[in-house]
Design a protein that fits this description.
This protein is 72% helix and 2% strand. It has a two-stranded parallel ribbon with strand order 1-4. Strands 2-3 form a two-stranded antiparallel sheet.
Length: 471
């Protein structure tokens, strides 16, 4: 972009990676300049986010092999290791959701991507030493939460680049293809741990009881070169928008917005379910169907959930986010009942392929719901500020539009932070349910009750005739 181009809204010239002139709602500007810059930032953001998800969820693939290489952790301890990255990732998201307007999208994407190197390298070293304590693995699992935090800042950043009419699709692309990191990880880890990918530099293999060998350290090391490349791409290829600048105090107004909390509730049910089921699915298969190799199937759920997320955004753009979200929750409930039907219980061995099919449907619904709920947020806050500025001067309306964009970005980030706690609660719920009752059914019935409450929230505030905030 030309360093001399200026804007009537901001007379300062653009300065390399720092853009002052940014008007995505201006059709001429968008077509001639904005669209190409937005696409460039989106296509650098996506692989960076994919790597973040891979590192965040890598424990879901590693834990099923820890005991086979010589560790002796209980099932509950293993579920804790699957859940802890969700706990730290969700907490970090609360802070990350406000970082882009403070530091800039380019800077923060590069810094947060580089931070993934710490847990990836440490994990690769720790699994090679059988004297590594459980507490060390707990710390590494918590550090993997860096990857979870990245989602909040990434979605906030991309929302600033696109006009409102295209945010559903753009955010769906960023999140959906970024979410693929879970599936890419669960597919690739079983492959790369089977041979000495890095030669002598990667360390010695671990011996299995059947005489086989594993290079479990590759589950961490495989991401290192890609993280370095993504960090460099973000630093040298992305942009910071001065129009997106805002202090934490300016953004904190969202905590007084009722619809921020309502959308947190709904997004907890969609993304929280996606990431929570992704974290717990491999170990759930291992415990319920012990004759099945979990890593042969675990990647399928996150794969379909991630791929359909852009479809959820697109459907919401065309049909309305609230309508898509409401009916999606209905199907989610039906899918959970299907999972319950095929689980082993009362002396029955269950039906793995029926269980798998119902879980695939459940992952599809989480993906569609992820896209549709994220489309609802910009519409809600744009409508809120349009109502408050109705009848005011053009300057007031223009400022209201900017405020709507900043609040939408903050809510996108903050709601993703709350939703990410699903990555902790769902696998931990499975572990607790198994400890108390011997099976995961109790946890699944709790999820059904939660989804029913989401149907009521969506209908009451957003989808019924005369709803307070139709979207």
């Amino acid at each position: 972009m030309s360093a001399t181009k200026t804007s009537a809204l901001d007379p300062r010239p653009n300065e390399g990676s720092l853009i002052h002139d940014w008007r995505p709602e201006d059709a001429h500007f968008w077509g001639s300049t904005g669209k190409a810059i937005a696409a460039r930032n989106l296509w650098i953001s996506i692989p960076a986010l994919l790597l973040a998800f891979a590192v965040w969820m890598v424990w879901s693939a590693v834990i099923v092999q820890l005991n086979s290489i010589g560790f002796a952790f209980s099932t509950d301890q293993l579920f804790w290791l699957a859940a802890l990255p969700g706990l730290s990732g969700a907490t970090l998201r609360i802070f990350y959701s406000f970082m882009v307007p403070i530091f800039g999208g380019r800077r923060w994407t590069a810094i947060s991507t580089a931070s993934l190197l710490l847990p990836a390298i440490w994990m690769g070293l720790a699994v090679q030493d059988l004297s590594t304590s459980y507490s060390v693995f707990v710390i590494i699992a918590l550090l993997c939460g860096f990857g979870g935090g990245n989602f909040a800042s990434s979605m906030s950043n991309i929302s600033f680049f696109y006009p409102k009419s295209q945010q559903g699709t753009a955010l769906g692309m960023n999140a959906g293809l970024g979410n693929l990191g879970v599936s890419v990880m669960q597919f690739s880890v079983p492959l790369v741990i089977g041979f000495g990918l890095f030669g002598a530099a990667g360390g010695q293999p671990q011996q299995l009881a059947d005489g086989g060998q594993l290079w479990l350290q590759n589950a961490g090391f495989i991401w290192v070169p890609f993280i370095i490349l993504a960090t460099l791409a973000a630093w040298f290829g992305m942009h910071d928008l001065s129009s997106a600048k805002a202090s934490f105090r300016e953004q904190s107004v969202i905590f007084t917005r009722k619809h921020n909390w309502l959308m947190c509730w709904l997004y907890l049910a969609t993304f929280g379910s996606f990431i929570g089921f992704a974290a717990g699915f491999p170990l759930l298969i291992k415990t319920q169907f012990p004759d099945v190799s979990p890593l042969q199937f675990a990647f399928l759920g996150p794969l379909v959930g991630a791929l359909v997320r852009p479809l959820g955004g697109w459907l919401a753009d065309k049909m309305g986010g609230a309508r898509v979200t409401l009916w999606n929750f209905v199907v989610m409930i039906a899918a959970v009942f299907g999972v319950l039907e095929f689980l082993p219980q009362a002396g029955s061995e269950g039906n793995f392929y029926g269980f798998l099919a119902m879980f695939m449907l459940l992952f599809v619904t989480t993906g569609i719901g992820n896209g549709s709920t994220f489309r609802m947020i910009p519409v809600i806050f744009r409508t809120l500020h349009e109502r408050s500025s109705a009848g005011q001067s053009d300057a007031v309306k223009a400022q209201a539009g900017k405020n709507a964009g900043k609040e939408s970005a903050a809510v996108l980030g903050f709601s993703s932070a709350i939703a990410a706690y699903g990555a902790f609660f769902i696998p931990k719920s499975f572990g607790t349910s198994m400890t108390l009752t011997g099976g995961p059914q109790m946890a699944l019935y709790v999820f059904i009750g939660f989804y029913v409450s989401c149907i009521l929230v969506t209908w009451l505030w957003y989808s019924r005739k005369g709803a307070e905030m139709p979207c």
